[in-house]
């Protein structure tokens, strides 16, 4: 086992290739241990170099609408009148706490996804 820190993109590619070779390794074997260590190193490298931003609340709502086949009008019970739904979905009005609670309860959107800050757009 020749494991070293992943410092460059070439190191990263090499580690991914080796992980591919080790995917069928049994746990508690030298190969299984190498796979565990390499996976940890790759995860750390990816977290630093390829961070995944959390989606903003409007993106989360739109995704849930797509999943459930909902239209803007279907959000009226959660957000308010259709004009308000439009304002929220077009980044012209922020979600309020009551809206967040209703979206969480009614559409099962995680609260932590809905409370993220996001920028409003100028009209």
UniProtKB/TrEMBL annotation:
Protein's recorded name: HTH-type transcriptional regulator / antitoxin HigA
Taxonomic lineage of the native organism: Bacteria, Pseudomonadati, Pseudomonadota, Gammaproteobacteria, Oceanospirillales
GO biological process: regulation of DNA-templated transcription
InterPro entries (alphabetical): Antitox_HigA
Origin: domain of life: Bacteria
Any one GO molecular function term: core promoter sequence-specific DNA binding
